[in-house]
Design goal:
The structure holds three protein chains of three kinds.
Chain A: H1 7-24, H2 30-54, E1 60-64, E2 73-77, H3 80-98, H4 100-106, H5 112-131, H6 135-154, H7 159-190, H8 195-208, H9 212-230, H10 238-245, H11 248-274, H12 276-281, H13 284-305, H14 309-330, H15 333-362, H16 370-373, H17 381-395, H18 403-413, H19 418-446, H20 464-482, H21 484-500
Antiparallel strand pairs in A: 1-2
Chain B: H1 2-5, H2 7-25, H3 29-51, H4 76-106, H5 111-124
Helix pairs in contact in B: 2-3, 3-4
Chain C: H1 6-15, H2 22-30, H3 36-54, H4 57-79, H5 94-101, H6 103-107, H7 112-120, H8 122-143, H9 163-185, H10 194-212, H11 214-220, H12 223-248, H13 272-296
Helix pairs in contact in C: 7-8, 8-12, 8-13, 9-10, 10-11, 10-13, 12-13
Classes of the chains: A mainly alpha, B mainly alpha, C mainly alpha.
Chain lengths: ~500, ~120, ~300
């Protein structure tokens, strides 16, 4: 069974290889390579999870070369890494399949193979970000991920997508340069690039008080760079344009997977490089907590103000990412488990919302403002059902996945003095605002139209894959909401491994 | 004062700050790309100066005989600079390609103008 | 907006007719009456106004302040950093000693940097060449014109009728290409390697294309060749590194048959030489296709 230990590396190399193979194809056959890759890697990630669950330590390190850690490069897999990669793969596969009819329409025919290439490269870089045990490898694959995800956005025919891509690239570049300078500062005071050695060196430096100031600055730069790239509150302005103008599959992948990939790398760096004690000691988490709470409120208020349904969902992403940072910033393990579950809930819900909104707006010739979308639910019932499921999940209604993180957050909030009140109040306000704007869209799409206008009715049989996929996503959402306990205990175990295994 | 000895690091950090400010605040896309390149230059200077050790040789060892590691400078920063250069080339190319497309469409390099025009265009549809 | 009752405001908001941005609101109402030309004039005026607001003195002053504060923080950081050119810095640790001291015997590369990036830390370099590949694809998808759009463009300016330029390029190009190949093949025994050699090669081809016109260059280096070289090099890179990663872990029970060879020979260093060539070809193709796509909007 030791063979399974090869699978993390096989996932990464296979997806790089598939990207190169797709470059040889002339037409859209390349898409099937992507499907194959995502399914195969999903199976591989699942087997790594089962292997680690059954093995004694639940964790292994794989050498990328012939030499051990400080000399050679390596990757590591515990429980959290393959679980999140599996989540990313499932979400990517579903949003790719569900939006395939839109890809055909939104992307020029000759460029459709590039969509597959970029999906493969995004997957490769996400796998590398999940499994990496070396901070510079992390940086290199962050860059692959940035270019690939930006290309997914640029592929849309609309010129507005190009403008959005420029904006997205600039924010990403700001984040990358901060991460890069943080990494080299860290290297120059520790002399290591691999996670275990960095952890030791940072622990020693922090306890002896040597280089404390450069260390704090370096860690702050890395954390803030990754936070900017994932769209934390003051840097969320690229979100509406980016998610609103890309083709639905790309919006789903960008919002549900790519930004979460950066957050996962951040989490890995916090636990495996900085060390949780040093992280709490350095007080960086207060900033994350504050910005997270601000993001929750500001994102929701912006979502209320806009009249475009795609922009509203994008702003709600900013709010949901605020939840994740609030959990990371609270500084308890329970809150981090809640944040992890929030990642799951959000990744499952957002692509579904983008897909179903595309289904709804297809009935009114691609328009996205509320006044036109009124009563569109009657013209595309499948999309309306899945939209309702997604909206209820985002609001946090029990039995949907979105309810669990809110519950876990409120449980974990107690007993932290002023933070408890801040967190509970922020949760309450944010939930009320969520209800406001999602209920508004729900009422709008179901209520009868005031003015008769030309509408196209889209039935299930017109786009069967779309229907099956969005219903499947709703079912997954409800499943994650009903059977949350196994996932939570898996995350708790994985987090223990993150903290304890060295 | 360490600053007088670390003058290369100081220079690189000043370059980083200038480039970063250009990247964030400049409204012209070309200037943003230039800022990105200045940021990278600062980072390479920092890395290259970090590997340097007074009085030691470049890390190309003789083909035969004993190698005393302490005679040579640190090769790791050089490898990191190489990676950094490749990444920066890729980003510059991508950003320049985006700029070409945007300029062909809007005939301006000012990002605010482009945003504004693009928004109006969307509303008029 | 201000004089309405709250309930009616709420209703308007629910139906999506309430706009929080006053300027956008007024535009919608005027839209029907205004002519297209007027619209454009207003648009330009609006844009100029917005530009003035943003590039005002306050904005510039603020950015200068930001730059100074950032620089001061980073300089303060540098103040506490290890000293320059010192041999007791944290970076001069056992990893560096291993790379320099054992590198030649373990990897077979006399050039320690090549040994480090292509053997010890080869995963980084794999990612790095894929950054280039991703960028090539991104530039192609942005700038490559589809075959339908291919209109007859005006004759682009070439030097092919200029005897001075042509003669010099005729002499220089082979030298540049030979030098590039030299740098590529000697990457493991002297300064150089895939990335530098590849860019020299690419520069040679670009020079040729500039002097003799892109049409002539495209007849020799067709898009198909570029595609085939890129795909073959990257696939070879993936497979070779998979083999060495796979054999690098003892539990797989297979030992690598690749030996370092005699350090200093051209054919030595195990996989380093073939990998250098593969990387060099990728870099060369990338540089050349960047030039062609930016210049002509297509590869052929």
């Amino acid at each position: 069974m030791d063979f399974i230990m090869n699978l993390p590396f096989a996932t990464i190399v296979l997806s790089l290889f598939c990207a190169v193979i797709c470059f040889a194809f002339k037409d859209k056959k390349a898409r099937f390579v992507s499907y194959f890759l995502l399914i195969a890697s999903g199976i591989m990630s699942a087997s790594v999870i089962f292997y680690n669950l059954s093995s004694e330590s639940g964790y292994f390190v794989y050498r990328m070369g012939h030499y051990d850690a400080p000399i050679g490069n390596e990757i590591s897999a515990g429980l959290l890494e393959p679980s999140f990669l599996l989540l990313f793969e499932v979400v990517m596969l579903l949003s790719l399949m569900g939006g395939s009819h839109r890809i055909m329409r939104d992307v020029e025919e000759e460029k459709q193979k590039y969509f597959a290439i970029m999906v493969n490269l995004t997957h490769a870089s996400l796998a590398a970000l999940c499994y990496t045990n070396d901070i510079f490898t992390g940086y290199v694959f962050i860059e692959v991920c940035t270019i690939a995800s930006c290309s997914l956005l640029m592929l849309s025919k609309r010129t507005r997508a190009l403008v959005a891509a420029t904006r997205y690239m600039i924010f990403s570049l700001i984040g990358s340069s901060l991460v890069l300078v943080g990494i080299i500062l860290l290297y120059s005071i520790t002399g290591h690039l691999l996670f275990p050695q960095l952890y030791e060196a940072i622990g020693t430096l922090w306890s002896t008080g040597e280089y404390t100031f450069p260390l704090t600055i370096a860690l702050g730069l890395i954390v803030s760079g990754l936070a900017i790239k994932s769209g934390m509150f003051p840097f969320h302005f690229w979100m509406p344009d980016t998610y609103g103008t890309a083709t639905p599959s790309a919006s789903g992948i960008l919002s549900g997977v790519v930004s979460k990939g950066y957050i996962f790398l951040l989490l890995k760096i916090i636990f495996r490089v900085i060390g949780y004690e040093v992280f709490l000691d350095s007080k960086i988490h207060y900033l994350l907590f504050l910005f997270g709470i601000c993001g929750m409120i500001v994102g929701s208020v912006s979502a209320i103000k806009t009249n475009n349904i795609n922009f509203m969902i994008a702003y709600s992403s900013a709010a949901q990412i605020g939840y994740i940072y609030m959990g990371l910033g609270l500084g308890t393990k329970a809150a981090i488990v809640a944040a992890l579950f929030q990642i799951v809930a959000h990744s499952l819900t957002k692509p579904m919302l983008f897909l179903s909104v595309s289904g709804l707006s297809d009935t009114v010739d691609g328009k996205q403002d509320f006044a036109t979308l009124r009563s569109s639910a009657h013209n595309n019932i499948v999309a309306a059902v899945s939209y309702s499921a997604g909206a209820l999940s985002m609001v946090g209604i029990p039995i949907f996945a979105g309810f669990i993180p809110k519950l876990l957050f409120s449980i974990s909030a107690f007993g932290h003095g002023i933070k408890t009140y801040l967190m509970l109040i922020a949760l309450a306000i944010s939930t009320i605002l969520n209800v406001l704007y999602f209920l508004r869209t729900l009422i709008n799409i179901y209520s009868p139209a005031k003015v008769e206008s030309a509408r196209k009715t889209i039935r299930f049989k017109n786009v069967p894959t779309f229907g099956v996929i969005v219903l499947l996503m709703s079912a997954l959402n409800i499943l994650a909401g009903l059977r949350s306990q196994p996932i939570v205990s898996l995350f708790e175990k994985g987090l223990e491994l993150f903290i304890n295994i060295r | 004062m360490n600053l007088l000895i670390n003058y290369e690091a100081v220079t690189s950090m000043v370059l980083f700050a200038i480039g970063f400010t250009m990247l964030v605040f400049s409204r012209n896309i070309m200037k943003k790309i230039l800022g990105l390149n200045i940021v990278d230059t600062g980072v390479y200077l920092f890395l290259a100066s970090m590997g340097y050790i007074e009085g030691k040789l470049t890390p190309i060892v003789p083909a035969t005989g004993e190698v005393n590691a302490l005679d040579y400078i640190n090769p790791i920063p050089q490898g990191l600079v190489l990676t950094g250069i490749v990444v920066s080339v890729s980003f510059s190319a991508l950003m320049l390609a985006l700029t070409v497309r945007l300029y062909k469409k809007y005939r301006t390099l000012n990002l605010d103008k482009i945003y504004e025009m693009c928004r109006k265009e969307d509303e008029q549809k | 907006m201000k004089n309405k009752k709250f309930s009616s405001l709420l209703k308007e908001w629910y139906e999506g007719n309430l706009s929080f941005d006053e300027r956008m609101d007024s535009d919608i109402h005027k839209k029907e009456t205004a002519e297209t030309e007027e619209k454009e004039i207003r648009l330009v005026k609006d844009v100029e106004k917005a530009e003035k607001e943003l590039t005002s003195k306050g904005y510039k002053f603020f950015s200068v302040i930001f730059c100074v504060i950032l620089a001061l923080i980073l300089i303060l950081t540098v103040n506490f950093m290890p000293l320059f050119a010192d041999d007791s810095t944290p970076t001069a640790n056992e990893v560096y000693e291993h790379y320099v001291g054992e590198g030649r015997d373990q990897t077979g590369a006399v050039n320690t940097v090549a040994g480090m990036i292509l053997d010890y830390r080869a995963f980084d370099t794999l990612g790095e060449s894929f950054v280039l590949f991703t960028a090539t694809c991104a530039v192609l998808l942005l700038l490559e014109q589809s075959k339908k759009q291919k209109v007859k463009e005006k004759e682009s300016f070439t030097f092919s009728n200029d005897p001075i330029v042509c003669t010099i390029v005729k002499i220089i190009t082979p030298i540049i290409i030979v030098f590039g190949v030299y740098v590529l093949f000697n990457g493991h025994i002297s300064p150089g390697g895939g990335f530098s050699g590849g860019s020299v090669l690419g520069a040679g081809f670009i020079l040729f294309a500039m002097a003799y016109g892109e049409d002539n260059a495209a007849k020799i280096i067709t898009p198909k060749i570029i595609r085939v070289i890129t795909i073959c090099s990257l696939s070879f890179y993936c497979l070779a590194k998979s083999y060495s990663f796979f054999t690098g872990n003892e539990f797989n029970g297979i030992h690598s048959i690749i030996t370092p060879g005699t350090p200093g020979d051209i054919v030595s260093g195990g996989l380093i030489l073939p990998l250098n060539i593969a990387v060099g070809l990728v870099v060369c193709c990338t540089m050349y296709s960047f030039y062609m796509v930016f210049k002509r909007g297509r590869l052929d």
